[in-house]
Fold:
Amino acid sequence: MKTLLVFFVWCILFVLCWPLALLVLVLAPVVWLIALPFMLLGAVVAATFALVGAIMLLPARLLGWRPVTN
Structure:
């Protein structure tokens, strides 16, 4: 659904200002490549926090405590 919305917004931009739309089309992969290390860093930080949380809760889990799930 998000891809379809992006496509329609790009089509509207293409009708209103085609040079800018073509520039966006060319620069989008470059922006993605620049953002890729930051996305990977975010995944590593989230995994690190999950590991630290699991280590902190390990004694309680060994004693039989289970987290409440909805």
In short: Residues 2-62 form one domain. The mean pLDDT is 92. The chain has one domain: 2-62. DSSP finds two helices and no strands in the chain.
